[in-house]
Design a protein that fits this description.
The protein has 134 residues and is mainly α. The protein has one domain. It is built from 5 helices and no strands. The radius of gyration is 15 Å and the shape is elongated.
C-alpha cells in the first residue's frame, strides 16, 4: 500500500514537472515552476536560476523544431534525436551547477517519468537511468 501511494505521488509529480519542463503556456508557467520548486525543494536563490535554464532548454528545442520545419522535406530523426540528447545533456550540466546532487537526481527521475509516460519507453535521452532509492 505504501509503495502504491509513493508511485501515485511520483506520477502526479511527473505530470506537474512535464508542464514545467515544457514551459507550459502563459499564466500557468509560474504555477508550474512553483510546483517544480516544491518537488525539488528549491531555495529562493535556485528558483530563478532553474527557471532560466529550463526556459533556455525550451527555447533551444523550439528553435530546433522551427529549423527542422523550415528545412522542409523529410526530417532526419536520428539527427533530431542526437540534437535533443545534446540539449538535454547541456541542461543537466547547467543544472548540476545549481542543484544539489539529491535535487539533480529528483529532476532526472521526473524527466524519466515524463519520458516514460508521455513518450517512447526507455527513459529520457541523455539522462542516466538510475533506479530510485527506496
Amino acid at each position: 500500500m505504501k509503495a502504491l501511494i509513493k508511485v501515485s505521488v511520483l506520477a502526479l509529480a511527473a505530470l506537474w514537472a512535464v508542464a514545467a519542463l515544457a514551459g507550459a503556456g502563459g499564466g500557468n508557467q509560474a504555477s508550474h515552476m512553483e510546483k517544480l520548486a516544491i518537488l525539488l525543494d528549491l531555495t529562493d536563490a535556485q528558483k530563478p536560476q532553474v527557471q532560466s535554464i529550463l526556459q533556455g532548454e525550451h527555447a533551444q528545442m523550439k528553435a530546433l523544431i522551427e529549423q527542422t520545419k523550415a528545412a522542409g522535406g523529410k526530417p532526419d530523426f536520428q539527427a533530431l534525436h542526437a540534437a535533443h540528447q545534446q540539449i538535454n545533456q547541456d541542461t543537466l550540466t547547467k543544472l548540476s551547477g545549481v542543484l544539489s546532487p539529491l535535487q539533480l537526481k529528483k529532476f532526472q527521475t521526473l524527466q524519466q517519468m515524463h519520458h516514460g509516460f508521455g513518450h517512447r519507453p526507455g527513459g529520457p535521452a541523455g539522462a542516466p537511468a538510475a533506479p530510485p532509492n527506496n
